[in-house]
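re: ur question from yesterday

yeah so i grabbed the chain u mentioned. its 123 aa long if i counted rite. heres the sequnce exactly as i have it in my notes:
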Amino acid sequence: MFILLHSCALLSAGDEKKARKQGFEDRFFRPSLVEGLHNGAKILLAYFHYCNKGSHPFMINWASPEQRARTELNAEQVEFMRTTTVEIKKRGKVILALVFTRISFLISPWDRVSSCISKDSGR
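ran it thru and got these structure tokens back, copy pasting raw so excuse formatting
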């Protein structure tokens, strides 16, 4: 899902760059297309939050059997989340800096991506 959101950001940035290059007054070269991309991103984020029931998946203690049971993931998925969480905790600030530098012009929808990764980032 995050790859799709990142692709949306890249497409939006390209459209914005083309609008500036062509001298358009609008922010985007194809505003209706970009609006559709952003609406799709909002739907993905809403679904992500619905599935996670308001939890922060990278803040879960994946060693806790009780917390693992609440996620309803299989063993392979739990291991993936555990190793991903370890990497995010090691390199979280670098990851956030890279992601949000590229997509800073879409603050409102991407603020929710940040809240998935860290309780302190975003809102």
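noticed a couple things. The longest helix spans residues 75-102. also Confidence is low (pLDDT under 50) at residues 105-112.
anyway ttyl
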